[in-house]
């Protein structure tokens, strides 16, 4: 969703035991860049639903959101103000089935291996490095800080 140049993004670190899923994007603004599954929050869409929907669309996995590393506010490489809500999820079903045109690869890696990514290999590295540091240091907050939806999403 974008309003007055502000873009709302839901992003999810998907965990399977001690490993986290990274995806390689093939989008016009992010060719061959690693990222966590993420995407725009649609108008009138609940932020938690949006995070789960984006994961399903990009990876084929169903997730339960269990925590958050927080909210990140930054200017993107496309010169948009982005407010990114980053969640932590656990796999509850589905199987890896990448969105072929936009996602070219995925890999499960140990959390401490996140720090080995070079900036040039990451989408929005200044933000992803903050998220990765929070994951490695276990700076994680309860999902309960997000209130229940106040409106019904039109999905």
UniProtKB/TrEMBL annotation:
Q: Which InterPro entries match?
A: NUDIX_hydrolase-like_dom_sf (IPR015797), NUDIX_hydrolase_dom (IPR000086)
| Coiled coil, from the record | none
Gene3D superfamilies xrefs: Nucleoside Triphosphate Pyrophosphohydrolase
The family assignment reads:
Belongs to the Nudix hydrolase family.
Q: Which organism is it from?
A: Bacillus salacetis
Pfam families annotated for this entry?
A: NUDIX
Please list the residue ranges annotated as the Nudix hydrolase domain. 5-133
Output the PANTHER family linked to this UniProt entry: ADP-RIBOSE PYROPHOSPHATASE, DIHYDRONEOPTERIN TRIPHOSPHATE DIPHOSPHATASE
Q: What is this protein called?
A: NUDIX domain-containing protein
């Amino acid at each position: 969703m974008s309003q007055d140049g502000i873009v709302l993004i839901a992003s999810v670190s998907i965990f399977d035991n001690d490993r986290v899923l990274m995806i390689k994007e093939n989008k016009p603004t992010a060719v061959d860049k690693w990222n966590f599954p993420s995407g725009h929050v649609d108008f009138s869409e609940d932020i938690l639903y949006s995070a789960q929907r984006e994961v399903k669309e990009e990876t084929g996995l169903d997730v339960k959101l269990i925590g958050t590393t927080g909210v990140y506010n930054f200017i993107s490489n496309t010169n948009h103000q982005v407010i990114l809500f980053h969640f932590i999820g656990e796999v509850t079903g589905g199987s890896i089935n990448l969105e072929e045109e936009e996602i070219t690869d995925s890999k499960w890696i140990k959390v401490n291996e996140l720090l080995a990514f070079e900036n040039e290999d990451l989408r929005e590295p200044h933000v992803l490095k903050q998220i990765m540091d929070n994951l490695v240091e276990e700076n994680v907050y309860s999902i309960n800080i997000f209130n229940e939806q106040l409106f019904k999403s039109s999905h």
